C-alpha cells in the first residue's frame, strides 16, 4: 500500500488513512504477555471529522434518503416508486 511506508521496519510511517464507520481508533502493540495499549484517539477523529464534514456526521446513506433526481434515485425505477 502506498498509504504506509514499510521501507524501514523500525520506523513505519503512516502517510494517510481512510476511516469507514467507527468514531475512533485504538492501536495496540503485540507483546509476549498479550496486547499493550499504545494510543487511543478517544473522540479526536469524530470531532475533526465533524468539523471537516458536518453534513455527513451521523448521516445515513441509504436509498430511503436518496436525493430526488440524484444518481441512486434515477438509477432504479423501483426506488423512485418507493420514494414517491
Layout of strands and helices, then pairs:
Elements lengths: L3 E2 L7 E2 L11 E6 L2 E7 L3 H9 L18 H5 L1 H7 L1
Overall helicity? 25-40%
Terminal residue distance: 44 Å
Low-confidence stretches: none
The fraction of residues in strands falls at 15-25%
Give the overall pLDDT as a whole number. 80
Major beta-sheet overview: 2 strands, antiparallel
Number-wise, the strands total 4
Order of helices and strands: EEEEHHH
Shape: elongated
Work out the radius of gyration: 20 Å
Description:
- The chain is of the alpha+beta class.
- It has 3 helices and 4 strands; from the N terminus they run E-E-E-E-H-H-H.
- The strands form 2 sheets. The chain has a two-stranded antiparallel ribbon. Strands 3-4 form a two-stranded antiparallel sheet.
- The longest helix is centred in the middle third of the chain and has 9 residues.
- It is elongated.
- It starts with a strand and ends with a helix.
List keywords for this structure.
4 strands; two-stranded antiparallel ribbon; alpha+beta; about 80 residues
Summarize the structure.
The chain has 84 residues and is of the alpha+beta class.
Amino acid at each position: 500500500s502506498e498509504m504506509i511506508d514499510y521501507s524501514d521496519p523500525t520506523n513505519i510511517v503512516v502517510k494517510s488513512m481512510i476511516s469507514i464507520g467507527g468514531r475512533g481508533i485504538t492501536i495496540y502493540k503485540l507483546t509476549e504477555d498479550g496486547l499493550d495499549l499504545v494510543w487511543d484517539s478517544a473522540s479526536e477523529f469524530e470531532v475533526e471529522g465533524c468539523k471537516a464534514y458536518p453534513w455527513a456526521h451521523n448521516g445515513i446513506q441509504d436509498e430511503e434518503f436518496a436525493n430526488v433526481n440524484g444518481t441512486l434515485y434515477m438509477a432504479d425505477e423501483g426506488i423512485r416508486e418507493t420514494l414517491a
